[in-house]
Amino acid sequence: xxxxxxxxxxxxxxxxxxxxxxxxxxxxxxxxxxxxxxxxxxxxxxxxxxxxxxxxxxxxxxxxxxxxxxxxxxxxxxxxxxxxxxxxxxxxxxxxx
Length: 97
Hints:
Elements: E1 39-41, E2 47-49, E3 51-52, E4 55-56, E5 59-60, E6 63-64, H1 72-76, H2 82-92
Antiparallel strand pairs: 1-2, 3-4, 5-6
């Protein structure tokens, strides 16, 4: 379920982020309807978002170029939500701020 804005940290914005959740593998589900140029097969035969230089191929800068039709897993990974904040903490490393 997508987090509501009230549950998100408004200070955690994609345009100022270096955590790059966009580097995580995005597995596609049957209900995802993503244009083929943004998809690829993984080594097990499943469909994932294609990557260019390690980042999601659908990115335009720090923003999703297919936001309105983004995959379910991306919809669940809300900007400023718990998963987002966890990735930011990992990117900053121990003692980061």
